[in-house]
Amino acid sequence: MPDTAPRRFQLARATDVTGVSGVGLVADGVLWPDGAVSVRWRGEMPSTVAWECLDHVVQVHGHAGHTRILWLDDDATGAETVNGVYRERAALVAYLATQHPAVLAYTDPDAPDWAVVYVHTPAGQMSWHIAPEDVDLFAHVAKVTPDDQLAEWDGHDTPTKYERLAHMTRFAALANDQRGR
Fold first, then answer.
1. What angle do CA 95, 107, 59 make, to 5 degrees?
2. Which of 5, 10, 88, 166 is deepest in the core (most CB within 10 A)?
3. How confident is residue 64, by pLDDT bands cut at 50, 70 and 90?
4. Is 7 exposed, middle or buried (0-12, 13-18, 19+ CB in 10 A)?
């Protein structure tokens, strides 16, 4: 068994994708030294669930970045945390926001501390919730008020967003091929 202490965490949700758990701090958990995970859900009908590993928790409850793991204890192993992965995602979205018109606004009443970046591409609007600790990556993006027309969500869901992103990727790859890159 690894020589590390259990690590406590909380699950914070910006958007309640399923309409069940709500937003904000929705669960408390422990990552055990052997890699197993215990999660205790908050709310009207709390429950406790055991998982083989943290990756499984993220795959089932991460909801494409709408749920973040907030570590309450130091990482005794020095391994990269899930928060680092989400920061990396935010950095890629920040780069995408340099390639197309984009704005940042606090438009989600269910997650008032989380900014939303709206990127307007030829394939359509794409948006991502940005955690408070990652907003610094978006200094180059115009901040607008929630009632600004550029911050009006077009109703796309996560699969549609990623279809639009895939379309833009195919288009860019084709353009690169035509230029001989």
1. 60
2. 10
3. low
4. buried
Q: Tell me which residue of 4, 62, 59 sits closest to 33, measured CA to CA.
A: 4
Name the more confident of 97 and 82: 97
The model's pLDDT over 89-110, given as tens digits with 9 standing for 90+, comes to: 999 999 999 999 999 999 988 7
Asked if residue 14 lies in contact with residue 76, where contact means CB atoms within 8 angstroms, the answer is no
What percent of the residues of the chain are helix, what percent strand, and what percent coil, each to the nearest 5?
35, 25, 40
Give the rounded percent of residues in the chain with a pLDDT score beyond 70.
86
Sign of CA dihedral 97, 100, 103, 109: negative
Contacts (Cβ under 8 Å, ≥6 apart) of 15: 23, 63, 66, 108, 110, 111, 129
Locus of tokens 């109703």 = 155
What is the dihedral angle through the alpha carbons of 123, 128, 133, 137, rounded to the nearest 10 degrees? 10
Structure tokens at 148: 């600004």
Using alpha carbons only, give the angle 34, 64, 142 rounded to the nearest 5 degrees. 125
Q: Summarize the confidence of residues 155-166 as an average pLDDT.
A: 92
